[in-house]
Design brief:
This protein is of the alpha/beta class. Helix content is 38%, strand content 20%. It has 15 helices and 21 strands. The longest helix has 22 residues, at 92-113. 52% of the residues are buried. The mean pLDDT is 97. The structure holds nicotinamide-adenine-dinucleotide. Nicotinamide-adenine-dinucleotide binds at residues 144-148, 153, 171, 173-174, 204-205, 208-209, 212, 222-225, 228, 231-232, 246-249, 280, 380, 382, 408, 448, 452-453.
Length: 493
């Protein structure tokens, strides 16, 4: 773990094994951090914020550290992508060609964006004085990340926080700590001052909980499950911490009658099975107009049959294992629930044990005739399971799409501009794509509505989440008694 600029073991000496979800082989061990360890990290971050150089550096100097870290990561991209693929189970082509390059671009973006921070221009609003508005860092930020995109989510959390001068304690998910430790190493090698970024491995219930409660932490930022978000809000309430939450999703993918069906099917395959479906924006609810549903499902199944399931380290694999046997079990339980509820299992729904006896696989799965109120249409499955639902009217499509607790992302598929824009406006989701599903850039704000959380990752809006606005007033009259004093005491001058 990285605490106060030193690489340390857990104070108890405890370790946690990290295991490959593909073949259960050992990938090594990491320290099993405790409350005591994370308290040391919080103290280091507090000291670095209150007295250290990082918050006091000019933006240019912080930017230089970011660019150096990005360059170091670029040099090690292949190695870290492989580590990510081995640890998480995602395919190497996704890790090496998408997640890692995008994360490095995020760092480069924030290296520049951090230099543009400004507040509104000051003015003489009272008549007697002038005002300066400043954006300042929040303080010590706890960043807690999930296991689905370990490296990328860590970058999305720490980059906007650090670049504006906060100091950070970063806690990766227990399953997937390896690439996050390398991120810490890159920042350390790039010259980030000691204590500005600390990385603590350990269980959420202990290390994460301490981060959410500790009075020396000013803000908690989580990407994770909605249930975890609730716990963090509760724990953080005692000290009224600022909270930023990127939580679960159940994305609608609405296919209108006039959509290009071939394009919609390609989109559904990619957006439904991305990262093995372990993606908060994954297109899990394919809501298809009644007139085109049969054609859509037929094409979809043809494409699903061609998905290559296997070793994530092979470039010709499209779908690797899920992150863990626990996640595999959870997904298969949803398959059983779907069948019990009366949805029609068209393909998949099994663990592929014959081909991959040790891997946490679930093969690509499609349910048809899914009703909007079924558990598989309401809850986040987080696996390679697609639901096909049907609608007749525009209003019904919108009602089904919005009829979940989540509001993270969704897409609409149509060739009619008016339908596209009307639907995009009606969907209560933070990201809405038209005739595509998934693309994000470093510049695009990403974050949920409703129980998908609040706050934004990416873009310059994220910088607002990690700063506080200060108003400084300067008297310009030089008078002992100002014109307004009589309203409190005495008579007008
Ligand atoms: P999770 O909520 O189980 O874990 C996330 C992190 O929280 C982990 O580091 C975990 O150790 C920690 N944690 C667990 N209990 C805690 C507690 N009581 N206090 C503090 N921290 C605690 O989520 P996961 O299973 O790792 O990831 C999957 C979830 O993440 C899904 O719900 C997915 O939709 C969501 N996600 C959301 C986004 C987004 O942008 N909105 C992106 C990726 C993932």
């Amino acid at each position: 773990m990285l605490i106060g600029g030193e690489w340390v073991e857990a104070s108890s000496g405890a370790i946690a094994a990290v295991t490959s979800p593909f073949d259960r082989s050992s990938l090594g061990t990491v320290p099993l951090g405790s409350r005591e360890d994370v308290r040391r990290a919080i103290d280091a971050a507090r000291e670095a914020f209150d007295k250290g150089p990082w918050p006091r550096l000019p933006p240019r100097a912080r930017s230089e550290v970011f660019l150096k870290a990005a360059a170091l990561l670029q040099q090690r991209l292949g190695e870290i992508a492989e580590l990510e693929s081995r640890n998480q189970g995602k395919t190497i082509k996704q890790a090496a060609d998408a997640d890692l390059p995008f994360s490095i671009d995020n760092l480069v973006f924030y290296a520049g964006a951090g230099r543009t921070m400004e507040a509104k221009s000051p003015g003489e609003f009272t008549g007697d004085g002038t005002t300066i508005f400043r954006r300042e860092p929040v303080g010590v930020v706890a960043s807690i990340t999930p296991w689905n995109y370990p490296f990328m989510m860590a970058v999305w959390k720490i980059a906007p926080a650090l670049i504006v001068g906060n100091t950070v304690v970063l806690k990766p998910a227990s399953y997937t700590p390896l690439s996050t430790l390398e991120l810490g190493r890159a920042f350390q090698d790039a010259g980030l001052p000691a204590g500005a970024l600390n990385v603590v491995t350990g269980p959420g219930g202990e290390v994460g909980d301490e981060l959410s409660r500790n009075p020396k932490v000013d803000m908690v930022s989580l990407t994770g499950d909605t249930a975890t978000g609730r716990k963090i809000m509760e724990a953080a309430s005692a000290t009224v911490k600022r909270v930023q939450l990127e939580l679960g999703g159940k994305a609608p993918f609405v296919v209108f009658q006039d959509a290009d069906i071939a394009a919609a099917v390609e989109g559904a395959i990619v957006a439904g099975f991305v990262n093995g479906g372990q993606d908060c924006t994954a297109a899990t609810r394919l809501i298809v107009h009644r007139d085109v549903r049969a054609k859509f499902v037929q094409h979809l199944l043809e494409r699903v049959r061609t998905i290559r399931v296997g070793d994530p380290l092979s470039r010709s694999t499209d779908l690797g294992p899920l992150v863990s046997p626990v996640q595999q079990k959870r997904v298969l339980e949803f398959v059983t629930k779907g069948k019990d509820e009366g949805a029609k299992l068209k393909i998949g729904g099994t663990d592929d044990k014959k081909k991959h006896p040790k891997g946490a696989f679930v093969v690509p799965t499609v349910f048809d005739s899914v009703a909007p109120d079924m558990a598989i249409a309401q809850q986040e499955i987080f696996g390679p399971v697609l639901d096909v639902l049907e609608f007749e009217s525009f209003d019904e499509a919108v009602e089904i799409a919005n009829g979940v607790a989540y509001g993270l992302a969704g897409s609409v598929w149509t060739q009619d501009l008016r339908t596209a824009i009307k639907a995009a406006h009606a969907l209560r989701f933070g990201d809405v794509w038209i005739n595509d599903h998934l693309p994000l850039g470093s510049e695009t704000p990403h974050g949920g509505f409703k129980q998908s959380g609040f706050g934004k990752d990416l873009g310059t809006d994220s910088l607002l989440d990690y700063t506080v606005l200060k108003n400084i007033y300067v008297d310009l009259t030089g008078q002992a008694r100002k014109s307004w004093h009589y309203t409190v005491y005495g008579d007008p001058a």
